[in-house]
C-alpha cells in the first residue's frame, strides 16, 4: 500500500534505480523502527540492554548509512522528496525521543531534519495535538 501511495504522489523516484535505492533506505529505516517499536513489550530486566543495542546499531550502522546518503543532496535519493525521506524523518524522531543527543555527530541528518520539519505539511503534522503521538 505504501508503495502504491508513494507512486501515486510522486514519492517513489523517477526510474527503477531510484526506486531500488528508495526501497533500500526505507527498509533500513523500518528495520530500526521495528527495534524501537518492540521496546514496550521488552521485559523490564532486558529493557536497558535493548536500549543500548538500539543506540549502538543506530550510531554504528544505520545513521552513518543515512548520513552518507545525504552527502551530496538534501534528499536520500535524487533531487526530490521520496518515501525514504519520510521514513527517515520518522525514525530519527523516534530515536531522539529515546536518545536526545543521538544526532550530535551527524550534521547532514540534522540539516535534513530541519528542512523536513520546515515543510508545511510536516510542520503541521508535528504540532501538538496532531495525529503523531510520542510513545
From TrEMBL:
The alphabetized UniProt keywords are: Transferase
Pfam families, from UniProt?
GST_C
Is the keyword Transferase assigned to this protein? yes
**Entry EC no(s):** 2.5.1.18
PROSITE patterns xrefs: GST_CTER
A GO biological process of this protein is:
glutathione metabolic process
**Which SUPFAM superfamilies does the entry link to?**
GST C-terminal domain-like
Stretches assigned to the GST C-terminal domain = 15-135
Q: Where are the transmembrane segments?
A: none
GO MF: glutathione transferase activity
| Keyword flag Transferase | yes
Q: What class of enzyme is it?
A: transferase
Q: Which family does it belong to?
A: Belongs to the GST superfamily. Alpha family.
Spell out the protein name for this chain.
glutathione transferase
Amino acid at each position: 500500500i505504501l508503495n502504491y501511495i508513494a507512486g501515486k504522489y510522486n514519492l517513489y523516484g523517477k526510474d527503477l534505480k531510484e526506486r531500488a535505492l528508495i526501497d533500500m533506505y526505507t527498509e533500513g529505516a523500518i528495520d530500526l523502527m521495528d527495534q524501537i517499536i518492540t521496546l514496550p513489550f521488552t521485559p523490564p530486566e532486558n529493557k536497558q540492554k535493548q536500549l543500548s543495542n538500539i543506540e549502538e546499531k543506530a550510531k554504528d550502522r544505520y545513521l552513518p548509512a543515512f548520513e552518507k546518503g545525504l552527502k551530496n543532496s538534501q534528499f536520500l535519493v535524487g533531487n526530490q522528496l521520496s518515501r525514504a525521506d519520510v521514513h527517515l524523518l520518522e525514525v530519527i524522531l523516534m530515536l531522539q525521543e529515546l536518545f536526545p543527543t543521538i544526532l550530535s555527530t551527524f550534521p547532514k541528518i540534522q540539516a535534513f531534519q530541519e528542512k523536513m520539519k520546515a515543510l508545511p505539511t510536516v510542520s503541521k503534522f508535528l504540532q501538538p495535538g496532531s495525529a503523531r503521538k510520542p510513545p
